[in-house]
Design brief:
About 35% of the residues lie in helices and about 25% in strands. By secondary structure, it is α+β, with helices and mostly antiparallel strands.
């Protein structure tokens, strides 16, 4: 079965540039696209053949294989150039002799000058096609671990990365206050070098906020515990605790039980614009390991009261 002539279908030849093939394909694909030819299945078949042909002729290896298959049919042969013609032939190929004649006759250049112009034009074409496109360098990814207090108030940190050849580069990173776990800090132009004059890539640092054993973070709320004596839990109290360098006053309500939550507004984690969440403290009741004689007498009296209450129930 004779193979299809994709050169003729796309209106190009073997020497046509990829840009010419692309331009012809776009024009023909628009004309034969199924959406523009509803109810005309023959147009859809042409569109499919155009797409197959475009895929083959735009791929160097596929094109070579195809040319070997159709060589005996003379597909894609460049158009013949007739002598003494100045008109542009099909597929945009100009009559070279006529062009030379135009240069030498109309512009008054001799043969040597014409050859010089041809050489310069060829050099210009090579320079244009060989010019490389600038490409931005790849980004470098890194992880930075910070303490909760560093995320709360912001901090200056150092990041050391091993570069090519074993060299270690150290960068200073300004950690903004209120940064969340998993958020990224981008340091522009500190990535891998660009190619052909392109910009350097960026250094992108992913922040990991380390939680402490007794302190957790829930969005903007800081969760921790507060140790209370039985007297503080029963009677209630005002106590001061230190957290992240701050002295925080906590009001313990009377009759506080083990596991109750005591909330302090405005002492939690922060946003970048200074809005702070809550400090949520879970009550943990602790029995004294040693007591004075006076305290023992008080506990004895308290025990008598509890026993009397039990009898009266």
């Amino acid at each position: 079965m004779k193979p299809k002539d994709y050169y003729a279908l796309l209106g190009v030849h073997k020497r046509s540039s990829k840009e010419e093939i692309k331009q012809n394909y776009r024009k023909l694909a628009k004309k034969y696209h199924p959406d523009a030819n509803v109810g005309r299945p023959e147009m859809e078949e042409i569109f499919k053949d155009l797409t197959v042909g475009y895929d083959i002729l735009m791929d160097k290896d596929k094109k070579k294989k195809y040319d070997r298959q159709v060589v005996r049919y003379n597909y894609g042969a460049p158009p013949k150039v007739e002598k003494n013609k100045t008109k542009t032939k099909k597929y945009g190929v100009k009559n070279e002799n006529a062009a030379n004649e135009f240069v030498s006759t109309i512009l008054g250049f001799g043969k040597d000058a014409t050859e010089t112009l041809k050489t310069k034009a060829s050099e210009f074409k090579v320079n244009i096609t060989s010019k490389k496109i600038a490409k931005k360098g790849d980004n470098i990814e890194a992880i930075l671990e910070i303490a909760l207090i560093e995320g709360l108030f912001g901090a200056e940190k150092k990041v050391s990365l091993k570069a090519a050849g074993g060299k270690v580069n150290t960068y200073t990173v300004q950690v903004p206050k209120g940064i969340k776990d998993g958020e990224k800090i981008r340091l522009a132009a500190l990535g891998k070098p660009g190619k052909n004059g392109g910009k350097n890539g960026d250094l992108i640092i992913t922040v990991k906020v380390k939680e402490q054993a007794d302190i957790k973070l829930d969005k903007l709320d800081i969760l921790s515990k507060i140790n209370l004596s039985y007297a503080q839990a029963i009677v209630g109290d005002r106590v001061r605790i230190k957290m992240f360098g701050e002295s925080i006053e906590v009001t313990v309500p009377a009759n506080t039980k083990e596991g109750d939550k005591i909330i302090v507004d405005g002492k939690g984690y922060t946003t970048s614009d200074g809005i702070r969440g809550k400090l949520i403290l879970e009550a943990a009741l602790t029995a004294p390991t040693t007591i004075t004689d006076k305290e023992r007498k008080i506990y004895e009296q308290l025990l008598k009261v509890e026993k009397q209450q039990t009898k009266n129930k």
